[in-house]
Amino acid sequence: MKALFISAAILASATAANAATLDFSGIQGFSTGSAYVPGGATITHESGGGILAGPGVAGHTDGFCFLTSSYICEAGGTMAFDTAVTNLTFDIDGAAPTYDSVEIFAYLSGGLVSSFLYDSGDQGVTDFSSYVLDTLVFVDSSTAAGVGYSTFSFDIADIPAVPLPASALLLLGAVGSMGALRRKRKG
């Protein structure tokens, strides 16, 4: 609940600094190991397995997937953005109806702000545009060929300092007053 409040407060005052995408052009479609940095984010496999990026991931040159030990896109992992982002959208590609599904969790500073379950088998856009976030966690439950993720588009969030709730300010004032009374009694 606290993370949702913080995210809402940040979103209310966040402005788009500049539109951005993830750059997968430097990879030629081979497993990159357990971590990949496409510029703007770090993608990490959940168990240290491979990440397939670039051409060959569900027919897209600008995407990736988390590989199992048998080189199938059915594993999960994490995408940590270099900074908080907003207006995030991306595609889920290559899912087989009734066999492939993934749940995606969005976090800001370690607090859950949203989640999305994709299990229709249809290719489509995943929309986290209503949230400010810095991390995505992909939990893949696929049993066919799995899914790939592509066409990431987002804005860098301009995050101001989050104001303390009024109750916290009252508490700080009360603590300060008690300290002043204590010093007065000693004197």
From TrEMBL:
It holds the Pfam family PEP-CTERM. Keywords: Membrane, Signal, Transmembrane, Transmembrane helix. It comes from the Bacteria. The keyword rRNA processing does not apply. InterPro entries: Ice-binding_C, VPLPA-CTERM. Residues 1-19 form the signal peptide. The keyword Transcription regulation does not apply. Residues 161-185 form the Ice-binding protein C-terminal domain. The chain crosses the membrane at residues 162-181. NCBIfam families: VPLPA-CTERM. This is VPLPA-CTERM protein sorting domain-containing protein. The lineage of its organism: Bacteria, Pseudomonadati, Pseudomonadota, Alphaproteobacteria, Rhodobacterales.
